[in-house]
Amino acid sequence: MCLGIPGEVVEILADRPDLAKVDVSGVRRAINIGLLVEEDVRPGDWVLIHVGFALSKIDESEARAALEFLEDIGKAYQDEMAALRDSHID
Fold first, then answer.
1. CA atoms of 70 and 38, how far apart (whole Å)
2. How many helices (H) and strands (E) does the chain have?
3. Partners of residue 20 on adjacent β-strands
4. How far is 22 from 30, CA to CA, in rounded Å?
5. What per-residue confidence (pLDDT) applies to 16?
6. Do residues 14 and 84 make contact, with C-beta atoms less than 8 angstroms apart?
7. Alpha-carbon distance 56 to 50, whole Å?
8. First CA to last CA distance, the chain
């Protein structure tokens, strides 16, 4: 099962404005925000992430509810977090 997972934007990378550093339950990774060029993504915003790409901008209450749901479903969430921890964008 593949999930979209909420992450909070921590910073937009100055030398790569198509990349942002996000925090997902304490794991920080660079993700591609190029699909959201029209959304004006900024630090503090929440995005829905799948395979290293931000798919949509979401509000914080939606992000918190999604994280709570994902934590409740167990293994699929753990697998997604493991994939995020192992990911790397150059």
1. 28
2. 2, 5
3. 12, 31
4. 6
5. 93
6. no
7. 10
8. 26
Q: How far is C-alpha 35 from the chain's CA centre?
A: 13
DSSP 90: -
Query: What letters, b where the CB count within 10 A reaches 16 and e where it falls short, cover 36-51?
Result: beeeebeeebbbbbee
Residue 34's contacts (CB-CB under 8 Å, 6 or more residues apart) are 18, 53
Bridge partners, 9 (sequence order): 22
Report how far residue 39's alpha carbon sits from residue 78's, in angstroms, rounded to the nearest whole number.
29
Distance separating alpha carbons of residues 54 and 19, to the nearest angstrom? 10
What digits encode the pLDDT tens for the residues 61-88?
Answer: 999 998 888 777 777 767 777 777 777 6
Neighbours of 29 (CB within 10 A): 20
Residue with tokens 């479903």: 73
What's the predicted TM-score (pTM) here?
0.78
